[in-house]
Amino acid sequence: MASTHSAPAIDKEALRRKYAAERDKRLRADGSAQYKRLETEFSDLASDPYTPVTPREPLTDHVTFAFIGGGFAGLITGARLKEAGIDDYRIIEKGGDFGGTWYWNRYPGAQCDTASMIYMPLLEETGHMPSEKYAHAPEIRDHCSRIGEHYGLYENALFHTRVTDLSWDAERKCWLIRTDRGDAFTANYVGMGTGPLHVAKLPGLPGIEKFGGKSFHTSRWDYAYTGGTPEGAAMSGLADKRVAIIGTGATAVQCVPHLARDAKELFVFQRTPSSVDERNNVPIDPDWFSKVNEPGWQKKWQENFVANLGVGFPAEDLVDDGWTDLGKRIRAQVIDMPADQRTPANIMAAFEDADNGKMEEIRERAQAIVDDPATGEQLKAWYRQLCKRPCFHDEYLQAFNHPTTHLIHTDGKGVECITEKGVVAGGSEYEVDCIIYASGFEVGTDFVERSGYDVTGRDGVKLSEYWKNGMRSFHGLHIHGFPNMFFVQQNQAAAFIANYPHNLVDHALTVAAVVSYALEDGYTEVEPTAEAQQKWIDFLLTGPGARIGSTECTPGYYNNEGQGYGEQERFALGHPAGAQGYFTHIDAWRKSGSFDGLEFR
Ligand code: NDP
After folding, report:
1. Which residues are within 8 A (CB) of 59 and not within 5 positions of it... i.e. 6 or more apart?
2. What percent of the chain has pLDDT over 90?
3. Does 250 contact ligand 1 (Cβ within 6 A)?
């Protein structure tokens, strides 16, 4: 994607006012409380439609390493531990197989918006060539199985199992893990990698339980009802159905084209339009791949992607897509600035200009693609691009040219209620046979509430108490007072970056290095010192923070529905020098071999 833009002739003040007015329409006093949790209040809808539960006896054995979560975090950590010779590894996963988000999200059209060359982990190790620049979900799910098989991670895995309690046994120096399947086993080490988007939510609409037709959340797609397949085969079950989809986020953008194609009639209920840029997906050419495929290529690609999102001036852009385009546009403006004018304020102004130019193009795209000018206007996103998850698709906007697809634009108000027969918006009732909730996942609630278990560390300290005023960790991975535990995620590390698995790949290297060191030298406990942890947090606090959605943004999960995250937000941080700064720091720390800040006992 070219970045030939200089500052566009846009009335910045007028645009800021328009963005603020659009945001204000959407602000609600109930914030995140407007949603209901699928897993508790609608547990019948939350059950696993993909794999039957296999009965088994509870376990009371012992493993060296237990990992909670069978998505990328658990798989990559397992791979690195197995490579390090630690064979006794057990994944505990609530789904019926590996994959995490890719296990649950099987809606038609599901695809990764980040290039597969950098997003799909362990490609070199497993010898897999992605079939497309942006792989579809079935291929990613298969890749999770491939990793599981390649590294022997299935052998010890517990599926359809939820951890209910995790407690440190100081005498035996191990963790006791209890689950909803009656297990009570121990592990010398534990890892937690439950992901940021694993608890599905529904809009808390009056009457939602009264609907007489079929309804489901996009992460529990009922192919038995719709027909079709996750690979995109026609959903013959919808040929005579009127279907409503509520929500127009990244998930809806991907499945609406399939619903438009197959449903008798489709009603898309929109509260806030997504920004939908072009996708330009292409198959990966094996000849091209064979030239790229030299030792270390994936690490090089991942690092190049991070560099292109950062503030440096990398010589090449290997991925070259909509994510790196914005970074390039900002740099194009900064490069024209005399060195003495590159102040933070001027760089922020350049960022705003680049963003305005980009968003204007995306709005023009909606108008150009959609035949009906009024519908095209309603599909325009009025906010800065990173206020909400940017979307990329080459068939979503086109779906609104389908004669049986109707955009129900609620102008920021959303759906009002559900009746026995359908959906009410703008005072009108739309009678439908099926309602699909593309309403997203819980974000920003505290970790313990979302994960479904508390952790009791050394001296009986509960993680829920310890993190009451915000997360505290060393390098985002180790927590003082919680020995032999690793938190494999993004905060207080590289933080939110467009290639989430890169965080996990890096953390897994650290876990394997630390555990190998402890085992080789006969240590039974490892934990960060209180001083090292505090120093790390103080250092992170010197930076600008990592939360991408400010309260100036239109409401969404990036900014806790416009209300911000309060005191806790201060700690949702990344390295002051960005993701690249973190990876550079941690690489040197790991290579030093002394693991400064960790205490081995
Ligand atoms: P989102 O939270 O992004 O979207 C939820 C949608 O539901 C929003 O459009 C929201 O509107 C709408 N909504 C909620 N309540 C109502 C209501 N009462 N009336 C009308 N609309 C309503 O969830 P998604 O599942 O789309 O995406 C979640 C995340 O998953 C993404 O942000 C992304 O990080 C990830 N994802 C990643 C993909 C990938 O490529 N790797 C693909 C798909 C998803 P409003 O915006 O107004 O709140």
Report:
1. 158, 183, 184, 185
2. 79
3. yes
